[in-house]
Each structure stands twice: as structure tokens, then as C-alpha cells.
Design goal:
The structure is a single chain. The chain is globular. With 349 residues, it is α+β, with helices and mostly antiparallel strands. Helix content is 19%, strand content 31%. Helix 1 (4-15) packs across helix 2. Strands 3, 4, 5, 7, 8, 11, 17, 20, 21, 22, 23 and 24 form a twelve-stranded mixed sheet that branches. Strands 12, 13, 14, 15, 16 and 25 form a six-stranded antiparallel sheet that branches. Strands 6-10-9 form a three-stranded antiparallel sheet. The relative contact order is 0.15. The protein has helices at 4-15, 22-43, 120-127, 140-147, 156-159, 180-189, 338-341, and strands at residues 48-49, 56-57, 66-70, 87-92, 98-104, 111-112, 132-135, 153-155, 164-166, 176-179, 215-216, 219-222, 231-236, 241-246, 249-250, 261-262, 264-270, 272-274, 281-283, 289-295, 298-307, 310-315, 318-319, 327-333, 342-345. Pfam families: DUF3048, DUF3048_C.
């Protein structure tokens, strides 16, 4: 079970991990952690905090992260469960199609899907949070990684019709779903441990939220290969959160119609390369580079770094805090780059 001091110390360890002097790091981490713990305790009485959202809870917040490959084809929308994901990566697959890697830890949706097939870079992203990885299908390289035991996983190719169920209101390959109950059942059957929580990310304290600055970013459009896969975000001043849209349609849950509401939008520019005749890609998730961070209707230029498999924002070499809540990470190719892929508006809704 993660106590506040352990959670905050873990995040601060991440912040100072780039220092070369180990004893200096230990001293800096201890001082910073003690200071942050005192600030947080003064602000709130929560006894627990979820590591990937920074949201406080009176109940236990431990538990392994679960990363699910979610279909983002127009025929698969609206999806199920995305509104409960702590972190979602949106990344190109073959052609101009984007897929979503939804990481769940603080909330457990009843149903998730449609579930789609794995690619090696999605597996790497899931591994960064030591997640149990859920997919239905795989590319040859992804299959090789899974067969070698690179990550604990459940795949619909082995459990189609058992742990994974086909919905009758959609056609294959857009109709594979899994319940969270079946995820836990599959984990138990395969002896996958599910109690260990991921390390905590770094978050603003309540007092620090008013210090967020930057250029106005009430609206953002991220263009991929076609209008069908463009993602847009609109900031709602009353909610203090971003709403998400695909091709102009708001992203909501298929059953409950609850909207996806986002606190951090992290747009990352990376090298992409087509590597085979099927249009499969290699994506550089290690080198770091340019990025934009949207929070509270503001945007700022940052850089991204890969820290133990996690894609995180940095400013002037230091980890940039996240607003407590949900985070979406859009990965775009360096060609055409952020300038051509992303546009902003300043009018609020």
C-alpha cells in the first residue's frame, strides 16, 4: 500500500535521477520529499494517492496497472472504458490509423474495448508502467516479444470467446471486448501478480495549480493522416478540464455516454519510419525531443524524455509536474512535425 511519503519520494526520485552524485541525490530527494509531504499534509487529509493521477482517496490505492490496446477506427467508436483510463497514448499504427493504449490503475471499468492487436512500441509503453498488457492479435515482431515473455499479457488470440467476447452490434475486427473481471480472472489463472503499484508520477499540489502559465490553448487540433483520425481538444472553463473529439464527435463511453475529461494533454514529436510492405512502423521512444504540454487552458513548450519506459515532460532539465487527474499523450511524427500537425485556438467553450 502506497503511503503519501512513499508516493512523493518516488516521484522526487524520478525528478533527481539524472544527477551524477548518488549521495547528493539522496540528500536532495530527502529534503525535497520532506518539504513536499509537509505541504500536501497541510492541504488535505487524504491518506492515500493514486500514483498515475495524483488523486487522493480514503481507500487503498495500490494495484498493478493494466494497459489495453483500444481500437480507434471510426467503426469502433464510441469505445468503452476510455473515460476511466488514467493515461492514454494515441499513436499511429499502419496506414494513417491511430490506436490507443489505455492504462488503468485508479479506476476499473466494467467493460473495455473494442480491443485491437499489439505492436512492439505499444508493448514498450505498457512495460514502462509494469502493466499487465491486454491485446487481441499482434504483428510478427510484437508476437515475438510476447512469446519470449517480455511482458505479462493476455491476448484474444488465445482467449477469443472465453476471456474476450465478441459484441453482436459491431463487426470483426471491431467487436472484441474484455471485462475487468475477466482481466483479473486471466491474471489469476496465469499467476500474474496484481498487487504491485507503479511508481508515482510528479503532480502539482493544490496551491501550485494557480501558478500554471503559458500561452492560451483553449482548443487544440492534432492532425494525423486523415480527418477520420484527427483528434481535437476543447477546454471547458467551468469543469477546468479538456473534452476530446474524434472527427468532430465527442469521445464518450459507449454505454454510459460519460465524456472523456482530461487534465493534461502531452503532445510529443518523435521519429517514425516505415519498415515493411504492410506499412508497419518503428517509432523512436527513447531519444527525447520537442513536446507541448496543455494544462488548465494554457500551453507551454517543453521537451520529452523517456524515464524507465515512461514518456514524461521536462522543462530546463527538470521534470514538469502534472495536474492531478487524467493524462492523454499524443505521439506525432517529426515529419511533418508539431508545427504542421498541431493547431491552437484561444476561444473558450
Amino acid at each position: 500500500m502506497l503511503k503519501k511519503s512513499a508516493v512523493l519520494a518516488a516521484s522526487l526520485l524520478l525528478l533527481f535521477s539524472g544527477c551524477s552524485n548518488k549521495e547528493e541525490v539522496k540528500d536532495d530527494v530527502k529534503k525535497a520529499a520532506d518539504k513536499t509531504v509537509k505541504e500536501v499534509v497541510a492541504e488535505t487529509s487524504f491518506s492515500e494517492y493514486y500514483p498515475l493521477t495524483g488523486i487522493g482517496s480514503e481507500e487503498a490505492t495500490d494495484g498493478r496497472a493494466v494497459a489495453v490496446m483500444v481500437n480507434n477506427h471510426p467503426a469502433a467508436r464510441p469505445q468503452s472504458g476510455l473515460n476511466k483510463a488514467d493515461i492514454v497514448y494515441e499513436v499511429l499504427a499502419e496506414g494513417g490509423v491511430t490506436r490507443l493504449l489505455a492504462i488503468f490503475q485508479s479506476e476499473k471499468p466494467e467493460n473495455i474495448g473494442p480491443v485491437r492487436s499489439a505492436r512492439e512500441y505499444y508493448i514498450e509503453l505498457a512495460k514502462g508502467y509494469d502493466s499487465l498488457f491486454i491485446a487481441h492479435g499482434y504483428s510478427p515482431d510484437a508476437k515475438s516479444m510476447l512469446d519470449k515473455g517480455y511482458i505479462d499479457h493476455l491476448n484474444g488470440m488465445a482467449y477469443d470467446g472465453t476471456l474476450f467476447q465478441r459484441a453482436d452490434f459491431r463487426k470483426a475486427p471491431h467487436n472484441s471486448y474484455i471485462t475487468f473481471g475477466n482481466i483479473m480472472k486471466g491474471a489469476e489463472e496465469n499467476l500474474f501478480p496484481m498487487n504491485e503499484s507503479p511508481g508515482s508520477l510528479q503532480f502539482y499540489t493544490e496551491k501550485e495549480l494557480d501558478t500554471i502559465s503559458g500561452e492560451d490553448a483553449q482548443s487544440a487540433m492534432i492532425s494525423y493522416s486523415s480527418e477520420d483520425f484527427n483528434s481535437s481538444y476543447e477546454y471547458d472553463d467551468q469543469l477546468g478540464k479538456y473534452k476530446r473529439y474524434s472527427s468532430g464527435e465527442q469521445t464518450v463511453d459507449y454505454v454510459t455516454e460519460e465524456p472523456v475529461l482530461i487534465d493534461n494533454i502531452f503532445i510529443v514529436e518523435t521519429e517514425h519510419a516505415i519498415v515493411d510492405d504492410a506499412g508497419r512502423r518503428e517509432i523512436d521512444l527513447t531519444s527525447g525531443g520537442r513536446a507541448i504540454l496543455l494544462q488548465k487552458g494554457k500551453r507551454k513548450e517543453v521537451e520529452w524524455k523517456n524515464v524507465d519506459g515512461k514518456i514524461l515532460p521536462f522543462i530546463a532539465g527538470s521534470a514538469a509536474p502534472l495536474v492531478p487527474g487524467k493524462t492523454w499523450i499524443n505521439i506525432v511524427p517529426t515529419d511533418p512535425g508539431i508545427e504542421q500537425s498541431v493547431s491552437f485556438e484561444t476561444e473558450s467553450i
